[in-house]
Design brief:
The protein has about 290 residues and is an alpha/beta fold. The protein has helices spanning about 10-20, 25-40, 45-50, 55-70, 75-80, 100-115, 130-140, 150-165, 205-210, 225-240, 255-265, and strands at about 80-85, 90, 120-125, 145-150, 170, 185-190, 195, 220, 240-250, 265-275, 280-285. The chain contains eleven helices and eleven strands.
Length: about 290
């Protein structure tokens, strides 16, 4: 296999040259750091202080292989099989969504508003388990239940819980037809359900459409809030008086989601922005 780079510094230039038609340079540099750290244990400081270090044949082969996969549009997280989320290592595959920075913000909000929390948490539609795991790790006195319809995603989430040394109860279940009696009541309910209308598919990047599970992303145009409505029906049975609910939402559906919370008996309802200034989260306190 022929290689166009020799040193650590060359790797970055090689990837920029090969991938500049797919990713902006800033993202390629971030990908470079991520590959070096996860594959070879080389952190940013080492790269900056030893730019002339000669690459081994193994490094050259692996980076060339990863670059070829990146050129197809396959996300780096799927290529490497894992990502970092709220200081947790989260394994991902084609059955699970790649955790987003916005979802880290959601976890941060919950942790900041519920310090020393000792109650129960239910995470509906857990996917890779990232929300449930990060909450359990940062609110160690909580008791966390995570619900997911996809068997392969559930297996991935269980692996991630073990990997991060947290104890979570996993339940296979469909939020739309869920028997609330199989999980205990909780003080906090959280969910980042599918919320992208089918009609928005045409605006999405190829690397999302070609590789991420559509069931975890898209909802019918005719009823884009189907999962929020179903979870709120469950919340009326499962959430304790004074309990809190937290949703990640479609930025265009803030008011409608708030109206659903209000009709389900919640008060102190608020829309919160993400770091990009978009309406991304809705929260409320149960008045039952």
């Amino acid at each position: 296999m022929s290689h166009n780079f020799q040193t650590l510094k060359d790797i970055r230039n090689y990837l920029i040259n090969k991938l500049n038609d797919i990713y902006p340079e800033k993202e390629i540099i971030a990908i470079t750091y991520h590959i070096l750290k996860t594959q070879f244990g080389i952190d940013r400081l080492h790269l900056l202080t030893n730019p002339g270090q000669i690459c081994t044949t193994e490094m050259k082969d692996r980076i060339t292989e990863i670059c070829a996969m990146l050129k197809t549009g396959k996300p780096i997280q799927y290529i490497l099989g894992e990502t970092s989320f709220f200081d947790c290592i989260i394994k991902v595959n084609n059955d699970t969504l790649i955790p987003r920075p916005e979802t880290e913000e959601l976890v941060s909000i919950i942790i900041n508003e519920n310090k020393e929390f000792r109650g129960r948490i239910i995470d509906f539609g857990t996917g890779s388990g990232c929300i449930a795991i990060a909450l359990k790790k940062n609110l160690p006195l909580s008791i966390v239940t995570a619900v997911e319809i996809s068997e392969p995603a559930l297996e991935c989430a269980k692996t991630n819980a073990q990997l991060n040394s947290v104890n979570i109860t996993f339940v296979k279940g469909d939020v739309i037809h869920f028997d609330h009696q199989i999980v205990p009541k909780a003080e906090i309910i959280v969910s980042n359900p599918p919320y992208v209308p089918e009609s928005e598919k045409k605006f999405m990047n190829r690397n999302v459409l070609d590789f991420e599970p559509h069931k975890a992303l898209f909802v019918p145009d005719i009823d884009p809030l189907i999962f929020y409505r179903a979870i709120l029906v469950l919340a009326e049975k499962l959430i304790t008086p004074g309990g809190r609910i937290y949703f990640e939402i479609n930025e265009t559906k803030g008011i409608e989601t708030c109206n659903l919370l209000e009709s389900a008996g919640f008060k102190e309802i608020a829309i919160l922005n993400d770091l990009n200034g978009k309406n991304r989260f809705v929260k409320g306190k149960y008045n039952g």
